[in-house]
UniProtKB/TrEMBL annotation:
Protein's UniProt keywords contain Signal: yes
Pfam families: SBP_bac_3
Native species: Faecalibacillus intestinalis
Key word Zinc-finger present: no
Protein name, UniProt field: Transporter substrate-binding domain-containing protein
Sorted UniProt keywords: Signal
InterPro entries reported for this sequence: Solute-binding_3/MltF_N
Lineage, uppermost ranks: Bacteria, Bacillati, Bacillota, Erysipelotrichia, Erysipelotrichales
Top-rank lineage group of the source organism: Bacteria
Domain (Solute-binding protein family 3/N-terminal): residue spans on this chain: 2-75
Length: 98
């Protein structure tokens, strides 16, 4: 289960048919597919996101959570945009070396 707000376009928001969509949703669904698991999103208010993670309401948060000094030591925290850029760059470099 993944905690998110569902109110922050273009990352996670509701489309005209009230479906949860956006960049974070698509990346999470692609990762779940790769891992062979189903994903379920739990929408909560911003104030409750970290508390819900700490109380095991969900396994991770995808909601543009900035790294702060207070959150720095939380094991869930990494910057997915940096990760995606690194993976993409690695593929480009590997192709150019061939």
């Amino acid at each position: 289960m993944i905690g998110t707000e569902g109110t922050f376009a273009p990352f996670s928001y509701h489309d005209d048919n009230d479906n949860l969509v956006g960049y974070d949703v698509e990346v999470s669904e692609a990762l779940a597919k790769e891992l062979g698991v189903k994903v379920k999103f739990v929408e909560v208010k911003w104030d409750s996101l970290i508390a819900g993670l700490d109380s095991d309401k969900y396994d991770l948060v995808t909601n543009q959570v900035a790294i702060t000094a207070e959150r720095k030591n939380m094991i869930f925290q990494f910057h997915i945009h940096t990760l995606i850029q690194q993976l993409s760059l690695k593929k480009i470099i590997q192709k150019s070396l061939k």
